[in-house]
Amino acid sequence: MRAELRGNNLDLVRRRNLSLILGRVHALGAVSRAQLTRETGLNRSTIAALVAELVQLGLVLETEPDQTNLVGRPSPVIVPSDRTVAITVNPEIDAVSIGLVALGGRVIRQVRYDTRHIPTAREVVDITAAAIDAMRGELETTYRTVGIGLAIPGLVRADDQLVTLAPHLEWHNEPVGDMLRAATGYEVVAGNDASLGAIAESMRGAGRGIDDLVYLNGGASGIGGGIIAGGVLLGGTSGYAGEIGHTLVNSTGAACHCGAVGCLETEVSRGPLLDVLGLDQPELLEEALLERYAAGDAEVVALVDRQTGYLARALANTVNVFNPRLIVLGGFLGSLYAAAPDALSEAVSSLAMAGPRSEVQLVRATLGNAILTVGAAEIAFAPLIADPASSAVSDKDAVSASL
Ligand SMILES: [Zn+2]
Question: Which of 220, 310, 226 is nearest to 271 (CA)?
Fold first, then answer.
C-alpha cells in the first residue's frame, strides 16, 4: 500500500469513494447499485462511474439480475471478483494451516500441514514457501494475489509485524513477516489470532453488522481476545490490545506464564475440563460436557460452575470497560456457555453495571475452523480495499477516462 495518496482533492475523493464501494461489495458479497446508493449516500451516476472503474480494475463484476418476478427497473448486481485472492498462514503447535481466500471472503482452499514438533519460524516460512511454489502457476495466472495474511497465536507488534512473543510456539522476537516476504516475494501482514477472530466474526460471523463486540476464544494454549470498538479493531499503542485472558479473576489463583497470578486463562482452561470428563480428544469435549452437566454429575457441575463464575467476572469487567453490544465466545468457552447459558448470562448481569449490561448479549462464534483463515485474509485484503486504485498496473488511461 502506498504510504500516502498523491494527487489533487478530486483524485483523493474518488479514491476514497472507490475504497468505500469496494469495501461494501467485499463485505456484502452481492449488492445492487440501488443498495450501494442507499448505503453510501453517493448519487447514482457517481456509483455507476465508481463501479465501472472497479470493473476495469478487475476487482468487481457487474451482472444483470434475474429479470423474472421483478417489478420496475432491475438494478445490476455487483459481486467481488473471485480471481482476486489472499493467501493465509496460521502456525500452530503441531501444524501450519495455509489457506486461499477470494475477495468477498469465500474460502477457496484450506490445507493443514502437520509437523512432528512445534514448528520454528524458519520451518513455518519454509513450509509456506514450498506450498506457495506448488501453486505459483495458478497464483500468478488464474488469480491476482494480493499477499499473505499471517495469524499468530501470540503478540504481534503492529508497526513492523515482529512476533514479540508466541508462548506456545516458543517464539521470541521472530521477524517472521519479513522472512516470509523474502521467501515468497509477497507482501505480508501479520496479526494476533484472536484479533483476527474478532475481525472475522464481526465481518462474516455472529457479529455481522455490529460495530462493538468482544471476541474471546478458548483453546489448548489459553484464552485470546479481540475487541472491535466503533467498527475498528482496538490495537492499542503497539498492537497488543485485547489480552483479556491475562486479566485478574482470582487473586489467590494459579501462577500464569505471563508472570501474574490468577489470570482468566489460568482459572478457566480446557485441560481440567478434559480431565474431569476423562477425555484426551478435545473435539469430544462439548458433547460429553453438555451430557454430564445436564445429568447433574457433581464433579462436572462443580468445575463448570467454578469456571463459569470466573469467566463471568472477566466478562463483566469487559462489559464495564468497553460497553459491547455482543460478546462472541469461541472454542471451549462456547462449550462452557452452552452447558449453562442462563447461569453465565445471569452472572455477567449481576456483576456488570446497570447501564452497559442492559445492551450486551452473549453468543457463540459461528465460523468454526475457517475463522482464522477468514480473519487473516481480511488483513491481507485491507491495503487493497483502502486504495483500490493502487492495484492498477497499466490502466492509467482507463482510470482517468472514468472520472
Ligand atoms: Zn497471565
Answer: 220
pLDDT band at 220 (very low <50, low <70, confident <90, very high): confident
Half-sphere exposure of 357 (CA within 13 A, CB side): 16
| Centre of ligand 1 from the C-alpha of residue 191, in Å | 20
Identical topology for domains 9-81+386-401 and 84-196+370-384: no
**CATH number for the domain formed by residue range(s) 84-196+370-384:** 3.30.420.40
Tell me, in angstroms, the distance from the centre of ligand 1 to residue 342's CA: 27
Delimit the domains of the chain by residue range.
9-81+386-401, 84-196+370-384, 209-366
> pTM here?
0.91
pLDDT tens digit sequence for 11-23: 899 999 999 999 9
Distance, CA 244 to ligand 1 centroid (Å)?
A: 9
CA of 396 to the centre of ligand 1 (A): 52
* DSSP-H helix ranges across 98-204: 121-134, 136-140, 176-184, 193-204
- Superfamily of structural domain 209-366: ATPase, nucleotide binding domain (3.30.420.40)
Task: Give 167 Cα–ligand 1 centroid separation in angstroms.
Answer: 11
9-81+386-401 has CATH 1.10.1660.10 classification: no
Would you give the distance in Å from CA 236 to the centre of its chain?
Answer: 17
Can you tell me the distance from the alpha carbon of 334 to that of 319, in angstroms, rounded to the nearest whole number? 18
Q: Is 354 exposed, middle or buried (0-12, 13-18, 19+ CB in 10 A)?
A: exposed
Q: Which of 42, 33, 26, 46 is nearest to 76 (CA)?
A: 33
Which grid cell sits at 259? 508472570
